[in-house]
Design brief:
This is Kelch domain containing 10. It comes from Hymenochirus boettgeri (Congo dwarf clawed frog). Pfam families: Kelch_KLHDC2_KLHL20_DRC7 (PF24681). The protein is an all-beta fold and 270 residues long. The strands form four sheets. The chain has a five-stranded mixed beta sheet, with no helix packed on it. It has a five-stranded mixed beta sheet with strand order 6-10-9-8-7, with no helix packed on it. A five-stranded mixed beta sheet has the order 11-15-14-13-12, with no helix packed on it. Strand 14 and strand 15 form a beta hairpin. The protein is built from no helices and 19 strands.
Length: 270
């Protein structure tokens, strides 16, 4: 991560924390999901009316992204090299899917959403988050893979079904795919990814109120930084961001390290 932080942003520090005392024999105990819910919610089973007569479901795909709220699951983009499975002559973006689907939990029905505006064309291995009524899409790759990459933010308001391209300033991330991102306290964080040739541990942050990008620079020696990666995952607890797994074209990283990024530091749990 050689790029500099902007706007006087304090340096980010990677530190290594101990998960538990050496030699600890504490074991993890698993419970059936059913046991964790009240009688009003006996399981997480998807309704048997998953697909009603006369309704289509999304074709098979990979490289897509999903997010959900309390009511709907949204599925965007994806890739399928099978001409017939991907829609045949009706799919002008073959082998990609330039489309947005919605699955309604209560009715168990899929619906392909008709939208207006500027839908992105980088439709595989992008990042997707849901912020209120807005889907935010960043990066990704199109055809040819690894050469037609993106570094713009696209927003789809699912209430009004309209796409727009977000105009931002500051130091944007490179044109990448396979990165992960999360929103916390009004900031959009983007970590890792690849250009198709170079893998990254860059951590960028977008202020959603000012629309300004900065790159957060770690104050660590090179030997104390996490390995470059893509296709990892991010989760957060409202205060910290956790980066799990990922890898490169020649390796996959184990889950004995979980990278934690609080507001002013990054820590490694081992």
């Amino acid at each position: 991560m050689a790029a500099e932080a902007g706007g006087g942003e304090p340096l980010v520090r990677f530190v290594k924390l101990s998960g538990r005392a050496a030699g600890s024999k504490k074991k993890v105990r698993w419970f059936p999901v059913r046991r964790l819910f009240t009688h009003s919610c006996p399981s997480l089973r998807i309704p048997s009316r998953f697909l009603r007569e006369g309704r289509r479901s999304p074709p098979a795909r990979s490289g897509h992204r999903c997010v959900a709220d309390n009511t709907n699951l949204y599925v965007f983009g994806g890739y399928n090299p099978d001409y017939d499975e991907s829609g045949g002559p009706e799919n002008e973006d073959f082998p990609l899917f330039r489309e947005l689907w919605r699955y309604h939990f209560a009715t168990g029905m899929w619906h392909q959403m008709g939208t207006d505006g500027h839908m992105p064309r980088e439709l595989a291995s992008m990042s997707l988050v849901l912020h209120g009524y807005n889907l935010l899409v960043f990066g990704g790759t199109g055809i040819p893979f690894g050469e037609n990459n993106g570094n713009e933010i696209y927003v789809c308001n699912v209430k009004y079904k309209r796409w727009s391209k977000l105009s931002c300033r500051g130091k944007k991330p490179n044109r990448i795919y396979g990165q992960a991102m999360a929103i916390i306290h009004g900031f959009l964080y983007v970590f890792g990814g690849t250009t198709g040739y170079i893998y990254s541990t860059d951590l960028h942050r977008l202020d959603l109120s000012t629309r300004e990008w900065i790159q957060l620079k770690p104050n660590n020696p090179a030997c104390d930084l996490p390995e470059e990666r893509y296709r990892h995952e991010i989760a957060h607890d409202g205060q910290r961001i956790y980066v799990l797994g990922g890898g490169t074209s020649w390796t996959a990283y184990p889950l004995d390290k979980v990278f934690q990024q609080p507001e002013d530091a990054i820590a490694v749990f081992k």
